[in-house]
Amino acid sequence: MDCSPFYAGATHLAWCASDAIIIPVRVDEHSIDSLELTLDMLDNPDSDFNIWAERAGGIKRPQVSAVVMTMVGARSATKGVKDRASQMYVERAYEVAAKHADLFDAENPADAFVITDDFMSAGRISGALSIPIPQLKVGQFHTISGSRLQVNESQLRYRKELEYLTSIL
């Protein structure tokens, strides 16, 4: 269940109904803070979620199956190396996860991380036209909000990243 990052109501209900969760995290300060808040709420026995879960008969908290780092830029001159700002946010997310290692399905929380690129035009086309990224054709043009966008070769890399994400779930 996809919930807005509001830490009550629907999010708590989704956690109660779930055995496992996937947490998307953008490479920005707010998202790292939100990751920390989310993991704290799941881990802290005095959080509203855990208090109400206990009152409801001891509902078991979900495990974290994956942290999906999104919008990770690839602006480095070296192929396959992320820009320094992205690297810093990924490292900070690892540090936050390590503080709550018991929440993760994986023995090492770093093994639950999936790093995805900024999907750029392929992501915009996919989202706007409801076409899954793997079904987009390299070289094809689409018009989104008056802008003509082309699916470029990076779609192949994005598809592999999404296949990897699916494989760890």
Question: Could you write a compact summary of the structure shown?
Answer:
The protein has helices spanning 9-16, 29-43, 48-55, 84-98, 120-129, 154-168; strands at residues 20-26, 63-72, 113-117, 141-144, 147-150. By secondary structure, it is of the alpha/beta class. It folds into two domains: 1-118, no CATH class; 119-169, no CATH class.
Give structural notes.
With 169 residues, the chain is α/β, with parallel strands linked by helices. The protein folds into 2 domains: 1-118, no CATH class; 119-169, no CATH class. It is built from 6 helices and 5 strands. It has helices at residues 9-16, 29-43, 48-55, 84-98, 120-129, 154-168, and strands spanning 20-26, 63-72, 113-117, 141-144, 147-150. A 3-stranded parallel sheet has the order 1-2-3, with helices on both faces. Strands 4-5 form a two-stranded antiparallel ribbon. The longest helix has 15 residues, at 29-43.
Q: In one word, what is the shape?
A: elongated
Whole-number radius of gyration? Answer: 18 Å
Q: Please, how many helices?
A: 6
In spatial order, strands of the major sheet run 1-2-3
Q: Identify low-pLDDT runs.
A: none
H/E element string?
HEHHEHEHEEH
| Separation of the first and last Cα atoms | 15 Å
Instruction: Tell me the major beta sheet.
Output: 3 strands, parallel
Total strands: the figure is 5
Write down the overall mean pLDDT: 86
Overall SS class: alpha/beta
β-strand percent reads 15-25%
Indicate the percent of residues in helices.
40-55%
Q: Quickly count the domains.
A: 2
